[in-house]
Amino acid sequence: MDITFGGNKVTLEGKEIKVGDMAPEFKAVKRDLSDFNSEDLKGKIVVYSVAPSIDTSVCAIQATTFNEEAAKLSDDVKIVTVTVDLPFAQERFCSVKGIESADIVSDYRYREFGEKYGFMIKELKLLARGVVIVDRDGKVAYVEYVPEVTHEVNFEKALEEVKKLS
């Protein structure tokens, strides 16, 4: 799979995740510095919104759009934005942008999400942009790796897939 960042080809580390795969369990860090464990979301439909940094305009749009959509979805759908930003930056961002319906977690400490889901950009140690949707049984139902990291995800397609599972 060819992924570019600002027009320059980058290498993704880890195993490319595909529809039908069992979603690997991973640890990340919550905004309060406690551990996030993906296994705690078993039985829910989970949308992992993956972005390099919330401090860029495209990433901010992605996080705020999914936060707005999360408020409209059923309680059995959980939206989790994953970046490598420090939890302090994530907390500041969420406070300023009013992020309350979706979670934001950091892959900075363990880097398990990036490696287990194949989103870690080797050259930058940032995550590529994309979306992974996991069904209630822990199986990957939808995956999007955005070919150019500076472009937006396909919100309509991702939300359509969530609604099919709800």
TrEMBL record:
InterPro entries: Redoxin, Thioredoxin-like_sf, Thioredoxin_domain, TPX, Tpx_Peroxidase_subfamily. One of its GO terms (molecular function) is thioredoxin peroxidase activity. Its EC number is 1.11.1.-. Pfam families: Redoxin. Residues 17-166 form the Thioredoxin domain. Keywords: Antioxidant, Disulfide bond, Oxidoreductase, Peroxidase, Redox-active center. PANTHER family: THIOL PEROXIDASE. This is Thiol peroxidase. It comes from Peptoniphilus faecalis. The lineage of its organism: Bacteria, Bacillati, Bacillota, Tissierellia, Tissierellales. The gene is tpx.
